[in-house]
Amino acid sequence: MAIQATLNARVGEVTERIVQRSSGPRQRYLDRIAAAGAEGPRRRALGCANQAHGFAACGPADKAELRAGDGANLAIVTAYNDMLSAHQPYERYPDLIRAAAREAGGVAQVAGGVPAMCDGITQGEAGMELSLFSREVIALSTAVALSHQTYDSAVFLGICDKIVPGLVIGALSFGHLPTVFLPSGPMTSGLPNDEKTRVRQLFAEGKVGRDALLEAESQSYHGPGTCTFYGTANTNQMMMEIMGVHLPGASFINPNTPLRDAVTREGVKRALAITALGNHYTPLGRILDERAFVNAVVGLHATGGSTNHTLHLVAMAAAAGITLTWDDFSDLAEVVPLLARVYPNGKADVNHFHAAGGMGFVIRELLSEGLLHENVETVWGTGLSGYTSEPALNEAGQLTWTDGATATGDEAVLRPVAKPFQPTGGLKVLDGNLGRAVSKTSAVAPERHVIEAPARVFHSQEELQAAFKAGSLTGDFVAVVRFQGPKANGMPELHKLMPPLGVLQDRGQKVALVTDGRMSGASGKVPSAIHVTPEAANGGAIAKIKDGDIVRFDGVNGHLTVLVDEAEWAARPLAEQDLSGSHVGVGRELFAPLRAAVGSAEHGATIFDRTAA
């Protein structure tokens, strides 16, 4: 077990100010879930017809258990579909969960399903403009699933980008229920990530055809499980583990293996062991407190995780009555070292990270320097030191937990705090006369952390791609891609910008990206200021930029400025853009109320937190 060092002063300061600023909303939230929990199992108070509907389709044994009302009823909320490689393994989970629940003296029912879209499929397509808002739909769907009030605890089956945050937001509305998240794990390693990137750039230059590109992509994404780069999906898994709602070591075990099934069964048993029916009641809303969210931000920095969580963690925290800000991210980044190099921050994938020591090693190292709160509640029933252990099967095939790695298995992938890849976290908050933005500096070479160059303005990633193909992107420049924020078009990810910009950078040009859109965990080697807020469609200064304006991107000091005379800048009108083409087709017309209600990126780009409007 890890020994908790004295808490780092900065971590303590940031935590305390979050507690202070959140005191009113957090207390109201805790009072609400305490009142809900005090009622006991709600299903016992339902009318006879209500109860009969709830167990009508159950088998005789399950029906008898629910009818008596003594055993726990476990809700399964699933994001299963066949199209997401990470979620396809969930097809067999309900039967596995039901069997494990019966062994533990309970019953499990699929309470409901939530949508789960794949950003990898919708990249550069109209469907990507629904992606961020799918998080809100998932939260709403979760609430519908649990609204029958027949459950004593819940397990959540979700992995990928908006799905886990949406499930967490929805689950926190039922924060009196104990909750365990059950991952399915990453696919086995395929084509090396640097080779995949090389083929993508060759395709962007027209040096290889579509067949070569499709073959490379198919070798990269080749089977069941999470995509193996360290994007938002795998950052979600890190985050759920470091926040204590996974079992220790659960995040990165490959799918459809005996160990994965054994850990899943144990997760079901834990969900049933911590209900209000027993002596270890541990509701989700109590686990996910201010300390847990600080631990998540520390984990994000230490592993170089997805920039999407500067949105998602803010929105998730708000659902628990906690106000988390970008300044909290920035201040924590100054004291948290970068311990992992996983693509796009390095050549390794998450399987290599797991083999090198994985989450147990990271948590042990951060605890040893006082960079995490150890004294937190978890579904495992321990403080965070319990998460330095890892699961294994003994010779008899029984699940056991042993101390995790105390030394890294590969210093090219994972390092101790005493020898980090860089002394500060991989994320920077930028500020200036263009507004506020975030930048994933861990993926960018140090000599590119400051760039000053003329602006080239675009209103879509397709416009920039066309300019690249026409050969007009010459010299040093800062690409400004605007009207890509949540109010404009749902804030799509703009991954198709990276191959052409990467090609130009490799040719020796100094290039950077400034956008009110998203780039997520796959943000590449090009210095990028993303999530610019206020966004162009909401009167943001990014709408004032003209071609040729000198833009300064300073990832060292955290500045994002346009070098235009102050008086001229103040008087310059905002550009306008016809966005109607992004508001119809592929279901986008149905999301007009969400575009109208959504708050700013800095407040989580959510429709739920009304203080963010």
Automatic annotation (TrEMBL):
Q: Which PROSITE patterns match?
A: ILVD_EDD_1 (PS00886), ILVD_EDD_2 (PS00887)
Provide the Dihydroxy-acid/6-phosphogluconate dehydratase C-terminal domain boundaries: 413-605
- What does the UniProt keyword field contain? 4Fe-4S, Carbohydrate metabolism, Gluconate utilization, Iron, Iron-sulfur, Lyase, Metal-binding
Judging by the UniProt lineage, the source's domain of life is Bacteria
Q: Which Gene Ontology terms describe the biological processes this protein takes part in?
A: D-gluconate metabolic process; Entner-Doudoroff pathway through 6-phosphogluconate
Per the UniProt entry, the Enzyme Commission number(s) are: 4.2.1.12
The UniProt catalytic activity note for this protein reads: 6-phospho-D-gluconate = 2-dehydro-3-deoxy-6-phospho-D-gluconate + H2O
* Dihydroxy-acid/6-phosphogluconate dehydratase N-terminal domain location: 73-384
For this record, the Gene Ontology CC terms, alphabetical, are: cytosol
Q: How is the cofactor bound?
A: Binds 1 [4Fe-4S] cluster.
User: Which pathway does the protein contribute to?
Assistant: Carbohydrate metabolism; Entner-Doudoroff pathway
Cofactor(s) this protein cannot do without: [4Fe-4S] cluster
Q: Which GO terms describe its molecular function?
A: 4 iron, 4 sulfur cluster binding; metal ion binding; phosphogluconate dehydratase activity
Residues annotated to bind [4Fe-4S] cluster: 160, 227
Q: Which family does it belong to?
A: Belongs to the IlvD/Edd family.
What is this protein's function?
Answer: Catalyzes the dehydration of 6-phospho-D-gluconate to 2-dehydro-3-deoxy-6-phospho-D-gluconate.
UniProt protein name: Phosphogluconate dehydratase
Report the gene name. Answer: edd
